[in-house]
From TrEMBL:
The active site is at H406. The keyword Magnesium does not apply. SUPFAM superfamilies: Six-hairpin glycosidases. Residues 1-21 form the signal peptide. Its EC number is 3.2.1.4. Residues 30-478 form the Glycoside hydrolase family domain. This is Endoglucanase. It comes from Pyrus ussuriensis x Pyrus communis. It comes from the Eukaryota. The keyword Hydrolase applies. Keywords: Carbohydrate metabolism, Cellulose degradation, Glycosidase, Hydrolase, Polysaccharide degradation, Signal. It is an enzyme of class 3 (hydrolase). PROSITE patterns: GH9_2.
């Protein structure tokens, strides 16, 4: 007992000397939140569901989408609590999920596969929506018909109208956002599925050309299908530049880069399904930061974004904060702003760190990457329950979460419970009921609390209680960053010193007390897997230098006497934690058979 205590104190001392401590419980919470956040997308699936579907209360739906125009448009996502497929926000969602995987995929563990599935569910559909040259499907499902009824997707009998933009009736924003999604996802699948990746990229190039050549807003062309729900208020130039930015990242073709530089305009503080401006500056900064000739105006604008958000910055703010600390912007579904802006800042932090950059906001407020990560963590923690109500805004996460979300499928009993058809107004009684929703839409993040940190758990308070795909997509990004920084990465030099100390002073039976604490700080970082391999090697006494880091832990080491059961168990725990499947690392086979 006493030595346990000593170990703990020792570790605490080490941790607090190096960083703000992060407990294992909350690290696991981040992993859980990420898994659930991705699971949500299965609940939004339209079309024929695969056998791997995990939210099983959802069934096949909208299997004839596209038949009104003689095409197959089955698949894709329902946008929010309704059953319409709005391709503009759906494409933004897909772009964001792809960005997340491109930034953080390596540290996603088992959720990497689920993230790829979530992206592919979007891209398979976008390939259908763009299969006819010089035309792009902008939405499927008459939104007014859909919004009149309160029906399960599986029962829908409202018009499933297909809304298509063409040369004559263009829609540059929806087309360019789809091009962005296809370009970003082509990079995601580059290693795992080359043919698919090539197909996505080819289509992206064609769709971008269509978007750029035939300019116009889809609100003017197919307004009855998309307005006032997803009218593009910020114009379509931001989507064209955003699309070109992703195409430049995917192809390195100078033409796209010139397009970006020649057309970059406008507002710098907005980022969401409508406006891409701030996202463009941050994305471009990844390469512009290393190239002084190409850094203007992107870096300056991204810096201004940072200073317009951080509470301590003296600059004029583009956001406000609730007394409990949640970021707010005007309009409904506030958490869409919180998640997307937090994500941008955390991505920017990564680029800053890689280039030893800080942001000077004036008045001696100098923002380091660590500061931005802290900020994101604060917002993520608020969403997950560290707030005045002690309530998580993610369904199924924590003890207390929204019970009456505004979502047709979640509110009405499932097909399993109630196989009979429920017609247009048949769902109204469930909407009005005071009971919690019968179907848990696990992982759904709702619009969120009011600006005074209160939350009315009510289906009719749409702004607060409706989930949307783009909130979750941005949250995957934000939480992934936190997950990575606070759990997967280590400061190598400090850790090595720590390990040496542990080895000298503690018996192997005490090691497991120590390892669950990770050391999340800046400086030299490596992936947890490499670190763990090193840890194993070090503890077994076979390596003492950094150069041997890649001495992949051998079966020999693992079966050596130094590795008692606890270490073995801990290894299994860690591998599971990381989602490493047997062939991925050398030692796993003997471990699983142990
Ligand atoms: C930047 O531009 C200057 C002036 O045109 C040129 O001399 C220099 O080589 C450029 N630097 C890079 C990295 O391209
Ligand atoms: C908090 O804000 C909401 C929405 O604006 C309002 O309805 C409610 O009365 C406020 N509650 C308190 C305690 O101020
Ligand atoms: C290892 O894990 C197994 C299964 O969870 C457990 O029964 C056993 O007690 C553990 N051994 C040690 C030494 O912790």
């Amino acid at each position: 007992m006493c030595s346990n205590l000593v170990s703990r104190v020792l570790i605490l001392a080490w941790l607090s000397a190096m960083t703000t401590a992060q407990t294992v419980t909350s690290q696991n919470n981040y992993k859980d939140a990420l898994s659930k956040c991705l699971l949500f997308f299965e609940g939004q699936r339209s079309g024929k569901l695969p056998p791997s579907q995990r939210l099983t209360w959802r069934k096949d739906s909208a299997l004839k989408d596209g038949s009104d125009i003689g095409r197959d448009l089955v698949g894709g996502y329902y946008d929010a609590g309704d059953n319409v497929k709005f391709n503009f926000p759906m494409a933004f969602t897909t772009t964001m999920l792809s960005w997340s995987v491109l930034e953080f995929g390596n540290s996603m563990g088992a959720d990497h596969e689920h993230a790829l599935e979530a992206i592919r569910w979007g891209t398979d559909y976008f390939l259908k929506a763009t299969s006819v040259p010089d035309s792009v499907v902008g939405a499927v499902g008459d939104p007014n018909g859909d919004h009149t009824c309160w029906q399960r997707p599986e029962d829908m009998d409202t018009p499933r109208t297909s809304y298509v933009v063409t040369k004559e009736k263009p829609g540059s924003e929806v087309s360019a956002e789809i091009a962005a999604a296809l370009a970003a996802s082509s990079m995601v699948f580059k290693d795992s599925d080359k043919d698919y990746s090539a197909l996505l990229l080819k289509r992206s190039i064609e769709v971008f050309e269509f978007a750029d050549k035939y300019r116009g807003s889809y609100g003017d062309s197919i307004g009855s299908g998309v307005c006032p729900f997803y009218c593009d208020f910020s114009g379509y130039m931001d989507e064209l530049v955003w699309g070109a930015t992703w195409l430049y990242k995917a192809t390195n073709t100078p033409d796209y880069w010139n397009y970006v530089r020649n057309n970059i305009v406008g507002d710098i503080t907005e980022f969401g399904w409508d406006s891409k401006h701030a996202g463009i500056n941050v994305l471009v900064s990844q390469w512009a930061m290393t190239d002084a000739n190409n850094s203007s105006p992107f870096i300056l604008k991204a810096d201004q974004l940072v200073c317009s958000i951080l509470p301590e910055s003296p600059a004029q703010k583009s956001v406000t904060y609730s007394p409990g600390g949640l970021l707010f912007k005007p309009g409904g579904s506030n958490l869409q702003h919180t998640t997307s802006l937090s994500f941008l800042l955390s991505v920017y932090a990564g680029y800053m760190k890689a280039n030893n950059k800080v942001v000077d906001c004036g008045n001696t407020v100098v923002v380091t990457p660590a500061k931005l990560v802290d900020f994101t963590k604060g917002q993520v923690d608020y969403i997950l329950g560290k707030n005045p109500l002690g309530m998580s805004y993610m369904v199924g996460f924590g003890q207390k979460f929204p019970q009456k979300i505004h979502h047709r499928g979640s509110v009405i009993p499932s097909i399993d419970q109630h196989p009979q058809h429920i017609e247009c107004h048949g769902g109204d009684e469930y909407f009005k009921s005071n009971s919690p929703n019968p179907n848990l839409l696990t992982g759904a993040i709702v619009g969120g609390p009011a600006e005074n940190d209160t939350f009315e758990d009510s289906r009719s308070n749409v702004a607060q209680s409706e989930p949307t795909t783009y909130i979750n997509a941005a949250f995957v990004d934000a939480i992934q960053y936190i997950h990575q920084v606070f759990r997967i990465k280590f400061h190598l030099h400090h850790l090595i010193t720590l390990l040496h100390t542990i080895r000298e002073h503690h018996a192997p039976s005490q090691w497991t007390l120590i390892f669950p604490n990770v050391v999340p700080i800046g400086g030299v970082v490596v992936g947890m897997l490499e670190m763990y391999q090193y840890v194993l090697c070090l503890l077994s006494g076979r390596v003492t230098s950094l150069e041997s880091l890649v001495c992949v832990t051998s079966r020999q080491v693992l079966s050596s006497q130094n590795f008692n059961d606890k270490i073995r168990n801990y290894t299994l725990y860690l591998l599971d934690f990381l989602g490493v499947r047997p062939p991925s690392i050398a030692c796993t086979t003997s471990l699983t058979s142990a």
